[in-house]
Amino acid sequence: MAFNSTSLKFAISFAFHIIAIVLSVMTLKPNTLPVHPRLAAELLSGRDNGYQLPGSQFKIFQPILPKKGSASLIYDRPCPTDAKSKQFCHDAQKFLTPFLLSMDTQEPIALVYCSSAELAEKRLAETGYRWAYNAGKGRGIARRMA
Question: With a threshold of 0.70, does the pTM exceed it?
C-alpha cells in the first residue's frame, strides 16, 4: 500500500489530535489524592480529629500564658540537636506565636514539656526553675527561683 501526501497529512493530523485529546483528559484528573469523606466532614464541621496542627500539644498553655511575652522552653535535653527535636521546638514556636520561646534558660518563666514527670523534675533542678503550674506528665509552667 502506497502512501500519498493526502493520507500522510491525514495520519499526522489524526495522531496530533489523538495526542491533544489524551493530554487534555489527563489534565482533568486532580493532582492530589481525594479527601476521605470522614476527614472532609470533620474538617467542615470544625473538629480536628483527622489532622492535628503541628505544635497543638502546647494548646494547654494558651489560656494561662499572656498573649505577648517570652519564656524559656525546657525540653528533655538541654539543647535539642537532632532534626526531630528541632522541628518540635519550631512547631511549638509557630503554634504559640506571637509569644516567644527561647531555648536559653534565662527567662523568668519557662514552659516545661518533658516526656516524663521525673525527667521534668530533673531538668527543673538543672535549670533553676520551680513549678508554678504543673499540668502533669512532665508538662507545665515554671518560674525561675530567685
Answer: no
Helix spans in the chain (H):
5-28, 37-45, 83-96, 117-127
C-alpha cell at 46: 470544625
Nearest to 92 by CA among 124, 114, 125, 122: 114
Span of 11-15, 80-84, 92-96 with lowest mean pLDDT = 80-84
Q: Is the dihedral of CA 67, 126, 104, 54 positive or negative?
A: negative
For residue 131, list its beta bridge partners.
142
> Could you tell me if residue 21 is left (phi over 0), alpha (psi between -120 and 50 degrees) or otherwise beta?
alpha
Concatenated DSSP letters of 39-56:
HHHHHHHT--SS-PPTTG
pLDDT tens-digit series, residues 87-142:
888 888 888 888 888 887 788 999 898 889 999 999 999 889 999 988 888 899 99
Residue with cell 506571637: 98
Q: Edge to edge, what strands does the sheet with 70-74 contain?
A: 100-102, 70-74, 109-113, 139-144, 129-136
Between CA 120 and CA 132 the distance in angstroms is 13
